[in-house]
Design brief:
single chain, 296 residues, Rossmann fold, 2 domains, six-stranded mixed β-sheet, three-stranded antiparallel β-sheet, 9 helices, binds adenosine-5'-diphosphate, binds magnesium ion
Length: 296
């Protein structure tokens, strides 16, 4: 399709998102009614995520990160505003298996083997045995668990269980992955390994990723853009594009992202981006220029 996208004024009639847009959140509010009164979990959220883009949500506990994920995933509905996923309602996107989900708890079925856990979504959607087996093999290979297909979840480490969950979320080849603190329970070394794996996998599959984390370095390492949120009510405070590596250019290009390796964690640009996100989180540009970024 060739929509007149670049025309001067944005047409309000463009309700159906362009195919290049994975997620569009427009004017979204979410209010919970509790015994203690109304909780304004989200207010005035506008966010557009391109196909293939990796976007992290970061912010203090209770700022509405999980709520926003749940709205995108059709696990809850906004109080106001609209959300589209590849131009569809979240419900339609869910029915069409447009996205895969991986949350903090791996959520594996303990009585099923690793292979059978990954195969579950394919089984549920009637994929025949032979192609199913082939797909499961490919996915386990991708997450480095080919040798563990016949094990049970309780025989695996936390990191391995999380990789099974990621493999399962990729089973339907979704164009979008929704990940809510998937590495939150892992030790630091496992976590860095999983981050590198996820960078590679997201580049290989070309899927857009919405990723919730508490960790600034994790958000910086993984993302094309980092969305910084503030609580009560949950709002987007700032969106920081990541400029990393030699080119120092912002990118939403999956291939460029694949070039992110562990060495980047020691690159000057990495520390500069960590500082930028930290300053955005803490609000005002505290003593901007005077501290943080040293110049020699
Ligand atoms: P985060 O994931 O950023 O820590 P959440 O999205 O879980 O934050 O929660 C945002 C706010 O909404 C919090 O104040 C939380 O207590 C409230 N909240 C979330 N879910 C519900 C619910 N089902 N009922 C009432 N309040 C909720
Ligand atoms: Mg949460």
């Amino acid at each position: 399709m060739s929509a007149p996208e670049n025309a001067a004024a944005p047409e309000p009639a463009a309700a159906a998102a362009a195919p290049a847009t994975a997620v569009r959140v427009a004017g979204v509010n979410k209010v919970f009614e509790t015994r203690g009164g109304l909780v304004h979990a989200l207010e005035g959220i506008d966010l557009e995520i391109a196909a293939g883009e990796f976007v992290s949500l970061i912010g203090p506990s209770g700022c509405g990160k999980s709520t926003l994920m749940r709205l995108i995933a059709d696990l809850d509905a906004p109080s106001a505003g609209t959300i589209t996923v590849f131009g569809k309602t979240p419900t339609q996107a869910r029915l069409d298996q447009e996205y895969g989900i991986a949350f903090q708890q791996a959520g594996l079925l303990p009585w099923r083997t690793v292979a059978a856990n990954v195969a579950l979504p394919l089984e549920l959607h009637g994929v025949a045995s032979a192609p199913r087996k082939a797909k499961v093999e490919e996915l386990l290979d991708m997450v480095g668990l080919a040798d563990f297909a016949d094990r049970y979840p309780d025989q695996l480490s936390g990191g391995m269980q999380q990789r099974v969950a990621i493999a399962r979320s990729l089973a339907e080849q979704p164009r979008l992955l929704l990940m809510d603190e998937p590495f939150g329970a892992l030790d630091e070394m496992t976590r860095e390994k999983m981050q590198s794996d996820l960078v590679r996998i997201s580049a290989e599959t070309g899927a857009a990723v919405v990723f919730v984390t508490h960790s600034i370095p994790e958000a910086v390492f993984l993302s094309d853009r980092v969305v910084v949120m503030s609580p009560r009510p949950g709002r987007i405070r700032e969106i920081v594009p990541m400029r990393l590596g030699a080119s120092n250019a912002a990118t939403t290009d999956a291939a460029a992202r694949a070039a992110r390796t562990d060495g980047l964690r020691e690159d000057r640009s990495f520390f500069e981006m960590v500082t930028a996100v930290r300053e955005a989180l803490h609000g005002a540009p505290v003593a901007a220029g005077a501290r943080g970024v040293e110049t020699r």
